[in-house]
């Protein structure tokens, strides 16, 4: 949210010039943040699965 306020201030537009645009930008940032953390979680699960598979194969 701070990023959108900073970006709006840098462009010289008043923050309330287009409320729907501000809402869209905020929703977009939240979606990107959410998607990013979900992607990181998926990658961590893949790595954990690989480590587990290696550990199990070493025991045999």
Structural key phrases:
60 residues; 2 helices; 85% helix
Write the layout of secondary structure elements.
Elements: H1 2-11, H2 19-59
Shape: rod-shaped
In helices, the fraction of residues equals: over 70%
Separation of termini?
52 Å
The residue ranges in which pLDDT falls below 50 over 5 or more consecutive positions are 4-9
What does the average pLDDT come to?
A: 76
Total strand segments? 0
Whole-number radius of gyration? 21 Å
Q: How many helices in DSSP terms?
A: 2
The biggest beta sheet is recorded as: none
Order of helical and strand elements: HH
Brief sketch in words of this structure:
The protein is mainly α and 60 residues long.
Outline the structure in words:
Residues 1-22 are annotated as: Disordered. Residues 1-15 have a biased composition (Low complexity). There is one protein chain. The protein is mainly alpha-helical. The protein has a domain at 19-58. It has helices at 2-11, 19-59.
């Amino acid at each position: 949210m701070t990023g959108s306020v900073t970006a709006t201030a840098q462009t010289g537009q008043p923050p309330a010039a287009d409320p729907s645009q501000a809402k869209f930008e905020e929703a977009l940032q939240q979606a990107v943040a959410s998607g990013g953390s979900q992607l990181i979680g998926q990658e961590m699960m893949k790595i954990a699965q690989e480590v587990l598979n290696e550990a199990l194969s070493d025991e045999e």
